[in-house]
Design goal:
402 residues; alpha+beta; Creatine Amidinohydrolase; Creatine Amidinohydrolase, Chain A, domain 1; 2 domains; 11 helices; 35% helix; Aminopeptidase P family protein; protease; aminopeptidase
């Protein structure tokens, strides 16, 4: 068996971890101000009178305020002049001000009052046009319904036309945070391979991955898929525990967060000696992933990246399209404060690639009843083309090159 797979234990691997977050730099107030100014400009260009943000990652992106979604409206209203006014329950004022400060403008509502009427009155007080309101795409329906009833003459649109245009183009500071998160997860993946042994359960592996993410200073695992054998052909894995056997394909897909920015890396390899079939399919997956990467050039439509991966697979007899054996889903997704966010590498998406965009690259091969292979690394766009956050896996029997 390859040196990188098996031969160690969770205790040994965890004891050897040294957390180092000295290179982590939080997003600054100045950068958040730039984000607000860009959003305000987009609002003016599109005739949007107000942007209503709810308890979402977009609220955090623009303001730094992180909140949980509940039945109570809490968020912020952004005007085309770049003014921000927070709307929150009166009893939460002190907690909100811990983040936004004493100088921030807050409009408070009591439990027996309508926060939607408060928003309507706020727009009137600010002399903001209520003819077109952009509502956070992550807002629950009850928020949309409340605003619709409070402002029946207003046209409420999806705020993606503002929020997505801002968020899909990452700054250098955002890229650095994502790089840190991905570096941690790749090292966790490497250490995870070392603890594998025959009979180990997928539950035990997932628990180690969570501990390792936290030991490195990341968040708990934001998600964790651990599959062995035939279930590796299921893109999101099976329910329940599995137990590793000699010759199984192993698929582990996981990530963590640094300063709320995500990692998401998948590794596939064989526990034991790969068969010729496993080796061939693994190499095909790597070739499709490489083709997608090289197709991702500035100005190229997102769908062409997906097409490049499928061309490699279909030439080998996979598919066509989403049929299996083959690739049953899109080739990649955007990533940042949400693990899946704008924009997507999928057929029909004609948006041209631009600097700052970040994507997963994961053209998975699913052979139902046999095994699956997913190699997932992420890249970001520069003026010169794509750049890997983490490079491609080395080989099916030496995934980390050792």
């Amino acid at each position: 068996m390859a040196n990188s797979i098996g031969g160690s234990s969770a205790a040994i691997q965890l004891a050897d971890i040294k957390a180092d977050l000295t290179d982590v730099r939080p997003i600054t107030a100045a950068e958040r101000c730039e984000r607000v100014n860009k959003a305000a400009r987009l609002m003016r260009e599109q005739g949007i009178g107000a942007l209503v943000l709810t308890a979402s990652t977009s609220l955090y992106y623009f303001t730094g305020l992180q909140w949980y979604q509940s039945e109570r409206l809490i968020g912020a209203v952004l005007t085309p002049e770049g003014q921000i006014v927070y709307v929150c329950p009166a009893f939460e004022e002190s907690k909100v001000r811990e983040t936004v400060g004493d100088s921030a403008q807050l409009r408070l509502w009591e439990e027996d009052e309508s926060p939607y009427q408060l928003v309507s009155q706020l727009l009137a007080d600010l002399r903001a046009s209520a003819s077109c309101i952009a509502l956070d795409e992550a807002a629950p329906f009850f928020v949309f319904d409340g605003l619709r009833q409070a402002m029946p003459l207003s046209r409420i649109i999806n705020a993606m036309v503002v929020t997505a245009e801002c968020r899909m183009h990452k700054s250098n500071a955002e890229l650095a945070l994502m790089q840190k998160a991905k570096n941690i997860t790749l090292e966790v993946q490497r250490r995870t391979a070392k603890i594998l042994r025959e009979g180990i359960s997928s539950v035990e592996v997932a628990a180690f991955i969570d501990q390792a993410h936290r030991a490195f200073g990341g968040s708990s695992s934001t998600f964790c898929i651990v599959s062995f054998g035939a279930p590796t052909a299921m893109p999101h894995g099976p329910d329940g525990a599995q137990y590793l056997r000699e010759g199984d394909m192993v698929l582990i897909d996981t990530g963590c967060k640094i300063q709320n920015y995500h990692s998401d890396i998948t590794r596939s390899y064989v526990f034991g000696q790969p068969t010729e079939r496993q080796r061939t399919i693994w190499e095909l997956e790597k070739s499709a992933q490489a083709a997608a990467f090289h197709a991702a050039q500035v100005g190229v439509a997102c769908e062409q990246v997906d097409a490049a991966a499928r061309k490699v697979l279909e030439a080998a007899g996979m598919g066509p399209g989403y049929k299996t054996p083959g690739l049953p889903h899109r080739t990649g997704h955007g990533i940042g404060l949400d693990i899946h966010e704008w924009t997507y590498l999928v057929k029909g998406n004609t948006r041209p690639l631009a600097p700052g965009m970040c994507f997963s690259n994961e053209p998975m091969i699913c052979i139902e009843g046999e095994f699956g292979v997913r190699l997932e690394d992420h890249f970001y766009m520069t003026e010169q083309g794509p750049k890997w956050f983490t490079g491609q896996s080395h080989a099916v029997d030496a995934p980390f090159g050792d």
